[in-house]
Amino acid sequence: MFLGTGPLHRGTRHLIHEPVFRPLYSLCERYPRSTAVWLRPPLFYVKILSIYLSIYLSIYLSIYLSIYLSIYLSIYLSVLTVCLSIYLSIYLSIYLSIYLNCLSIYLSIYLFSIYLNCLSIYLNCLSVRLSIYLSIYLSIYLSIYRLKPLWENKLRKSVQISLCMYMLFFSISS
Questions:
Q1: Average pLDDT of the residues in 51-67
Q2: Nearest Cα to 154, choosing from 68, 54, 66?
Q3: What are the CA-CA distances from residue 38 to residues 2, 50, 168 (Å)?
Q4: What is the pLDDT of residues 101-158, one digit of tens each?
């Protein structure tokens, strides 16, 4: 049997002159049946490799995404609460001071407005401290919490915990 004339090579005679394909065609001419088996990977190994890759990628992606998202969410929520608390405290202090100064006919109301201004400044400082503390605590706690067994639905729980802590902090700061 000449090169390029076997049953595997019908319609591909123009490729036999390519230097890349010459060793493969000569191998197919010498061992036509065993080469076909040798060239394709066994289905069993492909299945094992796909199972291994899917397990590895799911574990790696779940751990990486859960830690990344927990830290990102805690930092994002802490920055958001700090900005919101500062804005609300400044707005409320200015609004209360103007409103109560306009209504301050008596000295007691004026003293009450000063007291409320001091209280709003104190609450502002407290909210900044709490937001920093909660961001550090959330990032540490959620990073440790992410390393629990993999059969739990971790991402959903971390988002729920972050939202609960955010709502708790928002209700405390406002």
A1: 77
A2: 66
A3: 22, 20, 64
A4: 666 555 566 677 677 777 777 877 777 777 777 777 766 676 666 555 554 565 566 6
Positive or negative, the CA dihedral 92, 94, 98, 103 is positive
Treating both helix axes as pointing N-terminal to C-terminal, what angle do 43-102 and 154-173 enclose, rounded to 10 degrees?
Answer: 10
DSSP annotation of 42 reads P
Residue 20: helix, strand or coil by DSSP? coil
**Distance, CA of 71 to CA of 109 (rounded, Å):** 46
Q: 143 to each of 75, 83, 135, 163, how far by Cα in Å?
A: 13, 24, 12, 16
Cβ-based neighbours of 148, under 8 Å, separated by 6 or more: 154
Side chain identity at residue 101, one-letter code: N
Structural domain boundaries in the chain: 7-39, 53-173
pTM: 0.29
Q: What Cα–Cα distance (Å) separates residue 63 from each residue in 67, 70, 71?
A: 6, 11, 12
More reliable by pLDDT, 58 or 168: 58
Q: Tell me the pLDDT of the chain averaged across its residues.
A: 66
